[in-house]
């Protein structure tokens, strides 16, 4: 059985939300293909660091360069067991790409695990896969997911929870990584013993 995961990235993806799941899934033995429309293996995307510093919204700073390791044009959903959709600024424009939306729809139709965090659900909204689901996201994305027919689950003050709805696991922001990634790995059928 395949142990490949697809990870959608783009310029100004949230730094932690792309790097941490990428590294954790590698640690668990998955082959993670990080892709971006218009980019090929060896290209990079710039990341953004979002932090919660007491302002009305998150602050944003330039992050690292994140290496794309697979060609977007070669993606075949049948090759993957799961999909990761990080947040940050990237989802707001990645959702304009028809192939990105088709990929999400194919994962959803096949009931393969999908993990989306922060602004990542913007892509799920545009793909039309949230109707009837329960999910969470960064609070500013709540109107989008509700308008798409989803039930929004409150993301508590620490933003540290994850919500599972069928084959979908969502979280509000990077502080939820432990719960979000653990729930995704469980949906994948992996066992973690400590």
Account of the 3D structure:
With 194 residues, the protein is α/β, with parallel strands linked by helices. Helix content is 28%, strand content 25%. The protein has helices spanning 15-27, 90-94, 98-109, 121-127, 142-147, 177-188; strands spanning 4-8, 13-14, 31-35, 44-51, 59-67, 82-85, 114-117, 134-135, 151-152, 163-165, 168-171. The strands form three sheets. It has a six-stranded mixed β-sheet, with helices on both faces. Strands 2-4-5 form a three-stranded mixed β-sheet, covered by helices on one side. Strand 10 (163-165) and strand 11 form a beta hairpin. The two termini are 24 Å apart. The mean pLDDT is 93.
Q: What are the SSEs and their pairings?
A:
Elements lengths: L3 E5 L4 E2 H13 L3 E5 L8 E8 L7 E9 L14 E4 L4 H5 L3 H12 L4 E4 L3 H7 L6 E2 L6 H6 L3 E2 L10 E3 L2 E4 L5 H12 L6
Parallel strand pairs: 1-3, 1-6, 2-4, 6-7, 7-11, 8-9
Antiparallel strand pairs: 4-5, 10-11
Helix pairs in contact: 3-4
**Mean pLDDT across every amino acid position:** 93
Specify Rg, calculated over alpha carbons.
15 Å
N- and C-termini, Cα separation: 24 Å
By CATH, the topology is Rossmann fold
Estimate the helix proportion, in percent. Answer: 25-40%
| Spatial order of the strands forming the largest sheet | 3-1-6-7-11-10
Largest sheet: 6 strands, mixed
Q: What is the CATH architecture term?
A: 3-Layer(aba) Sandwich
What's the number of structural domains?
1
Order of SSEs: EEHEEEEHHEHEHEEEH
The CATH superfamily is known as: Class I glutamine amidotransferase (GATase) domain
**How many helical elements?**
6
Strand content: 15-25%
Structure classification = alpha/beta
Low-confidence stretches: none
| Mass-distribution shape | globular
E-strand count: 11
CATH domain class: Alpha Beta
